[in-house]
Design brief:
The chain has 745 residues and is α/β, with parallel strands linked by helices. It folds into 2 domains: 502 residues, Amidase signature (AS) domain (Amidase signature (AS) enzymes, Alpha-Beta Complex), CATH 3.90.1300; 207 residues, no CATH class. 29% of the residues lie in helices and 17% in strands. It contains 19 helices and 27 strands. Strands 1-3-2-6-8-7-14-15-13-9-10 form an 11-stranded mixed sheet, sandwiched between helices. Strands 16-27-17-19 form a 4-stranded mixed sheet, covered by helices on one side. Strands 4-5 form a two-stranded antiparallel ribbon. The longest helix is centred in the middle third of the chain and has 23 residues.
Length: 745
């Protein structure tokens, strides 16, 4: 079997190493004739074909890309270059309108087939600079404003975008595909949007440079909106210089976006802001402490402390500061944008602006009946498109946020204005601007800090910049341990409005200090992963921990010596956040009632004395070879029955979402049963069963499987309908656990 290194290897182009190629490298090779734009485009398309079935970073490819590249090559031969991106393929997020043969949908099936009236302004500028719009990148559907629980990077149209460092973990969002495509070497530049950390966090999780500009530096016209007050368009690159070239191409005034009116006074030549490590001498940076640095994961703190010491050794000073708004804006576990009263709520501001902005955007589309948020919600209901919990594994809570936004549609009044004033004042003058003014002693003059340093992948410090509408730049600084997933993390630089040049200076200087080898290449761990990495809330995490403390396993019945027959039941609801393993070390007569609701699932049944003897399907196709079973079922039903006394291993894989798979019976010998849900590995959360009576039943819950742990409790009776000897202790134990959970919640 091929390994990840072979599968994802970057092939050279005409002898040119493409591993860490930059925009400047490509410009040089195009100029020298090492390769043409057409050859580069064809190479990029082959890279998409090589990786996309694993990573899902590209939702659609431009069918005219090769023709566009050919035309640009012809212009180059005539000595005419449109701009610094001439002949270079780039990707744009699927919420940026392209008036070509591609569709712009924000990942939503409801907009498939709709036709946009014109290119988004930033797409227009990219074409003017010579860039080839190669395709649309995958994203969190509706830029993560769809549901209160979701899998970042998941959309109904595009499926799951996966992190190239570890495909079983989150790539964050909502600009997931744009970040992943750059990290995986598909393109050197891609563009995303940010309402609240949707550029900075994916960049951190992908080991990239991300630039989120001041609101108004880049036009949002033609971009499917979330919030006119917060939305910004920015680039991803593997180095600061690349990201800066990408930024320069899209900045400036656009009469169709009133927020850009101020840009004329603030746009500079950002390449001239790039600096070396020597420029760090004499700089003074602030490190926000309360609920920012103090909340950084202990496992990655040592690397940040090492980087901070390197910055000090280069001649800079780092002082401790705080955001005065920290108590009001940041709770102890982080910032929940969907909390607080309406007149202080970021969610209300975004909701009101999204509702009205979307209506204006949809009004210009043709070839569609979707004209409002109500139409989107109705479409999802009519087509069972993730409208309700359980419809789609990527949306455990359905479309509850979209439905709530409809209720807010008429609130563009004093409540809305009060909320907007509140978040701006708290994050600006009582937040970032205040923290930038450093005066440790009232007797000494205050100084203006050169930047604030934010350590983490996704945290409240980054969210302050989003709500303030201020710029933020991040660079990669390290990768966490294999035990934590082996994913990158970055250091962000923050300052006041229109300070992009200043942030680029310090980000490039620290990048130079750390060295180009600091950015690790993706390892593609768990490259066969099929799970949907839904991110749980803090309450869910606490509940999961509680279940882990009770071993995630309710042992019902009296114990007996090893060798007695047992019955086991494994039950799932929705999609696990992490896989887990159940091991039976005694002869197992029945492993029954596996139910993996609505997930793209890979169920592994392995162990001594276990193989597949017979398989039945409600419908679909199946094939068997060498002990492996692969079942494809487009009707969303899974495997019904597997039984047999032979030795071997059975893997059953569904390529379509399944509603149920049950009746996995293991007869006879000592066996090990791995039930991995929608994950590809069984390395964590192991539960071991080593003894039991003749009719002992082990009810084994995945502590990380359900969006609501109470789903288990409400479904227990249906599980036991098929069991011969339900134990009388069952309800007592469940009631005790339920009471504990209520106390925890």
């Amino acid at each position: 079997m091929e390994d990840a290194k072979t599968i994802f290897a970057l092939k050279p182009l005409n002898g040119v190493d493409m591993e860490e190629i930059t925009v400047a490298d490509i410009q040089r090779h195009l100029s020298s004739g090492s390769f043409s734009s057409l050859e580069l485009t064809e190479w990029t398309l082959s890279r998409i074909k090589q990786t996309n079935s694993y990573l899902g970073s590209v939702i659609e490819v431009n069918p005219d890309a090769a023709a566009i590249a050919t035309a640009l090559d012809a212009e180059s031969k005539q000595g005419s270059l449109r701009g610094p991106l001439h002949g270079i393929p780039v990707l744009v997020k699927d919420n940026m309108a392209t008036a070509d043969k591609m569709q712009t949908t924000a990942g939503c099936r409801a907009l498939i087939g709709s036709i946009v009236p014109r290119d988004a302004h930033i797409v227009h500028l990219l074409r003017a600079s010579g860039a080839i719009i190669l395709g649309h990148a995958g994203m969190s559907e509706w830029a993560s404003i769809r549901g209160s629980e979701e899998s970042m990077g998941y959309s109904a149209r595009g499926g799951q975008v996966r992190n190239p460092y570890n495909l079983s973990t989150s790539a964050w969002g909502s600009s997931s595909g744009s970040a992943v495509a750059v990290a995986a070497g598909i393109v050197v530049l891609a563009y995303g949007t940010e309402t609240d950390t949707s550029i900075i966090s994916p960049a951190n999780y992908a080991g990239l440079v991300g630039i989120k500009p001041t609101v108004g530096l880049t036009s949002r016209a033609g971009v499917i909106p979330c919030s006119e007050s917060l939305d910004s368009v920015g680039p991803f690159g593997r180095c600061v210089r690349d990201a800066v070239v990408g930024l320069q191409a899209i900045v400036g005034v656009d009469e169709r976006d009133r927020y850009t009116a101020e840009a004329a006074d603030h746009v500079v030549d950002y390449e001239k802001c790039l600096a070396s490590k020597e420029s760090l001498k004499g700089a003074v940076f602030g490190l926000p402490m309360k609920r920012v640095w103090e909340n950084v994961d202990e496992a990655i703190r040592p690397r940040f402390e090492e980087v901070f010491q390197m910055i000090r050794d280069a001649g800079a000073t780092i002082v401790e500061v705080d955001f005065p708004c920290w108590e009001a804006m940041i709770d102890e576990k982080g910032w929940n944008w969907n909390s607080g009263p309406d007149d202080q709520s970021e969610y209300l501001v975004c909701g009101v602006e999204f509702y009205h902005g979307l209506r204006a955007y949809l009004a210009e589309l043709t070839n569609t009946t979707i004209r409002s948020l109500e139409d989107v919600v109705a479409y999802n209901i009519a087509h069972h498109d993730g409208a309700s919990p359980g419809d789609d594994p990527g949306f455990p809570s359905g479309q509850d946020l979209l439905e709530k936004l409809i209720d807010k549609k008429d609130v563009k009044d004093e409540t809305y204005q009060a909320a907007l004033r509140y978040i701006r004042s708290q994050t600006r003058e009582n937040g970032i601007d205040a923290a930038l003014t450093y005066q440790p002693d009232p007797s000494t003059p205050a100084i203006q800090l050169d930047a604030l340093l934010l350590a983490d992948r996704a945290g409240p410090g980054q969210q302050l910049a989003a709500q303030a509408g201020y710029p933020i730049v991040t660079i990669p600084v390290g990768v966490d341990s294999d035990e934590m997933g082996g994913r990158p993390f970055g250091l962000s630089f923050q300052h006041t409005a229109w300070s992009e040049g200043r942030l680029i200076r310090w980000a490039s200087a620290v990048e130079d200090l750390l060295g180009v080898e600091n950015r690790p290449r993706p390892m593609y761990r768990e490259y066969l992963a099929t799970n949907i990495p839904v991110l749980p809330s803090p309450v869910q995490l606490f509940t999961m921990l509680l279940y882990a403390l009770v071993l995630g396993c309710l042992i019902l019945g009296s114990s007996a010596g090893a060798g007695a027959n047992v019955k086991g039941c494994v039950y799932y609801d929705s999609t696990p956040f992490q896989p887990f393993k159940v091991t039976f070390d005694v002869p197992t007569s029945v492993v029954h009632c596996m139910y993996d609701k609505g997930s793209n699932a890979t169920a592994q049944v392995t162990g001594y004395g276990v193989t597949c003897a017979s398989v039945g399907h409600v419908s679909g196709k199946s094939s068997s070879s060498g002990g492996d079973l692969c079942a494809t079922d487009d009707s969303r039903w899974g495997m019904n029955y597997v039984a047999g006394p032979k030795s071997g291993t059975t893997y059953s894989t569904w390529s379509a979402p399944i509603f149920g798979s049950d009746h996995i019976d293991l007869y006879g010998q000592k066996s090990t049963t791995h039930i991995c849900g929608s994950g590809s590995t069984c390395s964590d959360y192991s539960i071991k069963v080593s003894s039991g009576g003749e009719d002992t039943v082990y009810i084994i819950f995945n502590p990380l499987a359900s969006p609501s742990i109470f789903d288990y409790l409400g479904s227990i009776s249906s599980i036991f309908d098929d069991l011969e000897s339900p134990n009388s202790q069952m309800m007592e134990i469940l009631q005790e656990v339920e009471e504990d959970l209520k106390l925890a919640g």
